[in-house]
Amino acid sequence: MTVDDGPQLDDPTALPEDTAAPRRRFRVARRRIRRCLTRWRPILLGLLVIATTGFAAGFFYFGYRPDQQTDDAAARDAIRAASEGTVALLSYSPDSLSRDFDNARWRLTDDYQAYYERFTEQIVAPAAQRGQITTSARVIRAAAAELRPDSAVVLVFISLKTTSKDQPEPVKTTSSVRVTLRKVNGSWLIAKLDSL
To answer: Looking at the keywords, is Transmembrane helix present (predicted)?
Structure first.
């Protein structure tokens, strides 16, 4: 008894029809993918170049540029603004109170300026006029504690010389303050002054 229904097992090239069709489909699909990759390869390469350029520009803008804005010159500017502002805020005389307060006012941010005006009108001016108090501040040392492109914190060590009607001889004291600065329209302004 012989069976001639299927292919001979001895013939290696003879494959059943149901396995030859998937192989043909696989070859056709592989050719399509190759053609597609051949077309898209230059586009993908161009996108890679654009992405790399974008990364480099982003690194410059967000990484390198802020470092330039917080270099030694920026630190010196912040320290100078904090020192001059502290002297202006803490130095006054009963004969020139309004001029002294105006000199200090333009060195302050809007929020701190409102606080400073209330404080000087309600406390400092009446006490200075009543007791004929004169204070003179001088910066001993100052250093930047924090520095960012738009804000800074500066530690200022000051020497205060105070005279009054009751104490005509100058009383010298030293103090340290922490000055918080904000950069507004390219200028460092005092946003807060805390005694340490």
So the answer is: yes
Q: How far is it, in rounded angstroms, from Cα 154 to Cα 13?
A: 87
CB of 188 closer than 8 Å to CB of 147: no
Sequence length of the chain is: 196
Tokens of 115: 């606080």
CB 123 within 8 A of CB 133: no
The residue among 125, 25, 136, 123 whose CA lies nearest residue 91 is 136
Assign 71 to helix, strand or coil. coil
Structural domain span for residue 187? 72-195
**Contact 154/143 with Cβ under 8 angstroms?**
yes
Query: Does the model's pTM come out above 0.90?
Result: no
Measured CA to CA, the distance from residue 158 to residue 88 in angstroms comes to 12
Q: Are 52 and 91 in the same domain? A: no
Q: Shortest CA distance to 147 belongs to which of 193, 80, 79, 196?
A: 79
- CB 156 within 8 Å of CB 83: yes
Is residue 5 in some structural domain?
no
Among 38, 69, 100, the domain boundary falls at 69
Q: What is the pLDDT of residues 92-127, one digit of tens each?
A: 999 999 899 999 999 999 999 999 999 999 999 999
